[in-house]
Write a structure and sequence with these properties.
Blueprint: H1 11-16, H2 26-38, H3 51-54, E1 73-79, H4 86-99, E2 103-109, H5 112-124, E3 131-135, H6 136-144, H7 152-157, H8 167-171, E4 174-175, E5 178-179, E6 182-183, E7 185-194, H9 195-200, H10 210-222, H11 237-247, H12 265-279, H13 291-297, E8 303-307, H14 311-316, E9 321-324, E10 335-338, E11 340-344, H15 352-367, H16 369-372, E12 378-379, H17 382-385, H18 388-391, H19 396-399, E13 405-406, H20 414-420, H21 422-430, H22 436-458
Parallel strand pairs: 1-2, 1-3, 10-13
Antiparallel strand pairs: 3-11, 4-5, 6-11, 7-8, 7-9, 7-10, 7-12
Helix pairs in contact: 2-5, 2-20, 11-12, 20-22, 21-22
Length: 460
């Protein structure tokens, strides 16, 4: 599971964090948070078509009627937008309250790792969020635990349909025939290049495939950059691996959550290429987590693969850079991606006014997704994504490639299994502890066992 992602060293910034831009654990924090969440006890399985059924009882009969007409009310809103995206979200919340004076929003911004650990228990105790933002790959787990409730009626009233979203983003918000998330954005890996260094090397265009990328790195090295592209063993190494796996035509897991498939030939090819980058002398060995991003930010390397949530941080650092889609190292373009979704908790359904106000909040926020693009994200809605404000933005080249972005399947508990297996396989291979094929085969077998246990735990 991932990501986002406000997400650490910024990396965590986007998808998950609340620490200074130079703190290197945030990104990884989301994964740990997801793992912790997956290990919590189940309060129930399944997901009905109505919020009432999913919440464990018919507490609320309120349906969304557009503008909120009830008495003055306070909503608790939780999110993890603690990086460069944080100020944009706070501004939007303030604008919402100005436009909806009867609804007061108390915003709780928590580092994503802590967020996913604390939120389920807080909701169960009636002290959690009424409404919140969550990563797409967390929806199924929280739906299975009946922490969040279906939002089918809200999606219908908003006029949302699959035609205005990519299929993967739309479908991944559905668990057991009910929708649990309203998509706000899409965020993915991209390729950042230091334009001062590429110009010095005589490079005038971003590489697009394996051959041109190899030539690209060779030219940078010849120009005097000793290690132009640092290969990490940890975050975001597993996201790079997933991107390359998809590029080679593979899939990491069976869609039904029955087994891990990342040890295929496609997976071996992907991980072997990551190791090859080091053996060819383009990257130092034993790159510490997040140090590749810090080094890029400090102009010590020429190119790095990281999330688009880094855009505003790099702009603030006044680094001369260009963002482009990942080169197609395999046979087809692909890149790992995730999405922030709005959700409503079972806590909110116990009060008709809160339930109505929560839907009003999501409605307003969804319609303002163009403004959210200022945080460096890609609007989830096609109708917004294809406007000039987005296509001409820094993330525009990624937005234009959205059909090539790939998402993990909606499988409860997947984050836990992945953190304990796939990520370890990637790290061991990159560090030279195990051969790529051996590491992937052994960890995929472990992942399958964990996934089988999760199917029993969460209900197949």
């Amino acid at each position: 599971m991932s990501t986002g992602t406000g997400t650490g060293t910024n990396q965590g910034r986007h998808m998950m964090n609340d620490t200074p831009l130079t703190t290197p654990v945030t990104r990884r924090g989301l994964l740990l948070g997801g793992a912790a969440l997956a290990g919590l006890s189940l309060s129930g399985c399944g997901g009905g078509k109505s919020a009432q059924d999913a919440a464990g009882g018919a507490q609320s009969k309120a349906t969304f009627g557009g503008a909120y007409t009830g008495p003055a009310i306070t909503l608790s809103y939780w999110n993890g937008f603690t990086g460069g995206d944080g100020p944009f979200m706070k501004k939007m919340v303030s604008e919402f309250m100005a436009a909806n004076p009867k609804i007061k929003i108390t915003e709780n911004t928590v580092e994503w790792a802590q967020y996913y650990q604390r939120m389920p228990a807080a909701v169960t105790a009636g002290k959690g969020p009424d409404v919140g933002a969550m990563h797409l790959d967390q929806l199924a787990t929280n739906a299975a635990r009946k922490i969040i409730v279906p939002v089918d009626e809200l999606a219908k009233s908003l006029g949302l349909a699959e035609a205005d979203f990519t299929k993967d983003v739309w479908q991944a918000g559905i668990y057991k025939d009910a929708r649990y998330g309203i998509p706000l954005d899409v965020h993915s890996l991209g390729m950042y290049m230091n334009t001062d260094q590429t110009k010095k090397a005589g490079i005038d265009a971003a590489p697009t495939d394996k051959a041109s990328y190899d030539e690209f790195l060779a030219k940078l090295k010849q120009s005097g950059v000793q290690d132009p592209f640092w290969m990490p063993s940890k975050w975001p190494a597993h996201l790079m691996f997933l991107s390359l796996l998809w590029q080679n035509g593979g899939t990491p897991y069976a869609d039904d959550g029955s087994k891990a498939t990342f040890d295929s030939d496609a997976g071996v090819q992907a991980l072997a290429w990551m190791v090859e980058v080091i053996s060819k002398g383009y990257s130092p060995k034993n790159v510490a987590q997040d140090s590749q991003y810090v080094a890029f930010k400090n102009k010590k390397l020429s190119v790095t693969w990281d999330g688009i949530w880094q855009i505003n941080d790099l702009k603030a650092a006044k680094l001369p850079f260009e963002l482009a889609p990942l080169p197609t190292i395999g046979s087809q373009p692909a890149a790992w991606a995730n999405s922030h979704n709005f959700y409503i908790t079972k806590q909110a359904t116990q009060d008709d006014n809160k339930y109505q106000a929560a839907q009003t909040f999501i409605d307003w926020m969804s319609k303002k997704s163009a403004e959210w693009a200022g945080a460096g994200m890609i609007p989830a809605r096609k109708s917004v994504r294809e406007t000039a404000d987005v296509t001409d933005s820094t993330q525009g080249p990624i937005a234009k490639q959205i059909d090539n972005l790939r998402f993990l399947p909606p499988i409860p508990g997947l984050g836990d299994a992945q953190a304990q297996t796939l990520e370890i396989a990637v790290a061991d291979a990159v560090l030279g502890k195990r051969k790529p094929d051996q590491a992937l085969k052994e960890e995929a077998a472990k992942a399958t066992k964990l996934m089988e246990a999760n199917r029993k735990k969460y209900g197949a």
